[in-house]
Amino acid sequence: MTNHCPRFALSLLMALGIMLAGSVLAEPAKAAGVHQLGRAAEDSICEKVAENWNLVPGLPGIKNVHVRVRLRLDRTGQIVGEPYLTTRGGPKQTQIAAAASALRAVLRAAPFKNLPQTQFDNETSSVEVILNFTPSDMAL
Known about the structure:
Elements: E1 3-4, H1 12-21, E2 23-28, H2 39-51, E3 66-74, E4 79-88, H3 92-109, E5 126-134
Antiparallel strand pairs: 1-2, 2-5, 3-4, 3-5
Helix pairs in contact: 2-3
């Protein structure tokens, strides 16, 4: 199941950046041994990424671009390893710009604080998070 991040009251500039970029979705990881974050933690991550997301306006075909960012977070909310990005839809140059923008937003937003420590056990020192950036979900 994909969880939609709620929209938050943001400054006009921030709201414009989010509107141009699209919405942020968090989706629980499905791999064995990977713990799923709770809804509140997912929403917090989505909000923080959205606050740091800035996409160049007027990119051709942006409504058709979908960017997925898969990352692992440690107990302190730091990103473990390199985030993995995939894109689809829209022109290739727009995909590249959208992916770069999504990656910058995730890196600027980290570390993600107040992760529920119950998601970690002795065997699991990190959790996997999948963020979906989908501009077509927004009224562009």
